[in-house]
Automatic annotation (TrEMBL):
Role description: Catalyzes the formation of acetyl phosphate from acetate and ATP. Can also catalyze the reverse reaction.
Organism: Auritidibacter ignavus
Active site: D133 (proton donor/acceptor)
Protein's name according to its UniProt entry: Acetate kinase
Catalytic activity, as annotated: acetate + ATP = acetyl phosphate + ADP
Lineage: Bacteria, Bacillati, Actinomycetota, Actinomycetes, Micrococcales
Family stated for the protein in its record: Belongs to the acetokinase family.
Length: 393
């Protein structure tokens, strides 16, 4: 089965064609093609919209597919709100619902809806599935997702914690349980997805019970350019006393804060390099980022009733031994010890880096959101076909 995985950003469209076997598992060489179309809808760009981007994709795929056809498409969608608790087969009503969630994700949901509409028009016979970044976190209890603000802010404006990176947290939760030999439904742990965007998730019984991102992906950990948690009065203070507009504060907190704001670097490799060379700002950025992360881990250890494992994943989590070491050194009080040699091992296999006597296992597990989206797409399409639902129902 050939699955086209699509990730539509506001001005870009990333895609992969993946081949799954008849059981829905990856084939030996699962990625047949991949690419990115950029600058969609930009003033001086020749690509005016997502429909045109798809035309380019189909052109690029012609040679690769060599007469074979795409069986289904799986789309990453950032926001599913409270409605989408699982991946869904795309209908016109589903596209309208994704568009209607635009107030919650103004930069992400409209281009996703545009991509879905363009696909439906271009290839009406290909079943499409949407996989949401938020779905995995719909299992959070109210004590974790409610903010202590007036009830009407929740009922009228949808102000609550939603959480993101769900596809990755979900996948890595299953892989961690497998690695330590615990049935998923009995697994309690903490997943650290540390990329440009970063979030930690508390897993109890294999499900998300808390996560560090909130109403938007700005909350929680220190990220490449995002501040993570801060006192909300800072925002109003900057606006009332220092002449900032709402848009300016928003831009600075999203694009000029985090590691970049403190150190001048967004890439963890550069921050570590500069810190080693004695750069004060980079040392401070690492201190703030690792201290914040350690605090979340301590809190989530309580949230999950005692973690069996802590897993590092995504760009920094998978690749940066020095960053992992700086975090783990702060966790000694939890009885966590790690093997310095194992921490230095690189590779694409899930692996443990904790020492034999560590009270909590520590794992490094590569994430793969495209693979997870392809597999979910396969499952949804198979289930729909079993029920006799064609793509146009
Ligand atoms: P995203 O998908 O959020 O854009 P990724 O998960 O690809 O991000 O992570 C990107 C980040 O991973 C980079 O900004 C970089 O800081 C970090 N990274 C990648 N490789 C390394 C490495 N070898 N050492 C340290 N950091 C790394």
């Amino acid at each position: 089965m050939l699955i086209l995985v699509i990730n539509s950003g506001s001005s870009s469209l990333k895609y992969q064609v993946r081949e799954l076997d008849e059981t829905g598992a990856d084939t030996e060489k699962p990625v047949l093609a991949e690419g990115i179309i950029e600058r969609i809808g930009q003033p001086d760009s020749e690509i005016s919209d997502h429909a045109q981007a798809l035309d380019i994709v189909s052109g690029q795929l012609e040679d690769v597919l060599d007469g074979r056809t795409i069986d289904a498409a799986g789309h990453r969608v950032v926001h599913g709100g409270e409605r989408f608790q699982a991946p869904a087969l795309v209908t016109n009503e589903v596209i309208r619902a994704i568009d209607a969630l635009a107030p919650l994700a103004p930069l992400h949901n409209p281009p996703s809806a545009a991509g879905l509409r363009a696909m439906r028009e271009k290839w009406p016979d290909i079943p499409q599935v949407v996989v949401f970044d938020t779905s995995f976190h719909t299992s959070m209890p109210a004590e974790a997702w409610r903010y202590a603000v007036p009830e009407s802010w929740y009922t009228d404006y949808g102000i609550r914690r939603y959480g993101f990176h769900g596809t990755s947290h979900d996948l890595v939760t299953g892989l961690t349980a497998e690695l330590i030999g615990v049935p998923r439904h009995n697994f309690n742990g903490i997943i650290l997805h540390l990329g440009n965007g970063a979030s930690a998730t508390a897993i109890r019984g294999g499900r998300s019970v808390d996560t560090s991102m909130g109403y938007t992906p700005l909350a929680g950990l220190v990220m490449g350019t995002r501040s993570g948690d801060l006192d909300p009065s800072i925002v109003t203070h900057l606006m009332t006393s220092h002449g900032f507009t709402a848009q300016e504060v928003d831009r600075v907190l999203n694009n000029e804060s985090g590691l970049y704001g403190i150190s001048g670097h967004t890439d963890m490799r550069e921050v570590l390099h500069a810190a080693d060379a004695g750069h004060r700002g980079s040392q401070a950025a690492l201190d703030v980022a690792t201290y914040r992360l350690a605090k979340y881990i301590g809190g989530y250890h309580i949230a999950v009733g005692g973690a069996q494992a802590i897993t590092f994943t995504a760009g920094i989590g998978e690749n940066s031994a020095p960053f992992r070491a700086r975090v783990l050194d702060r966790l000694e009080v939890l009885g966590i010890t790690y093997d310095h040699e194992l921490n230095l091992v690189t590779g694409s296999e899930p692996r443990l880096i904790s020492a034999e006597d560590s009270a909590i296992k520590v794992a490094v597990i590569p994430t793969n959101e495209e693979m997870a989206i392809a597999q979910k797409t396969y499952q949804v399409v198979n289930a729909a076909q079993a029920w006799g639902q064609g793509p146009g129902f």
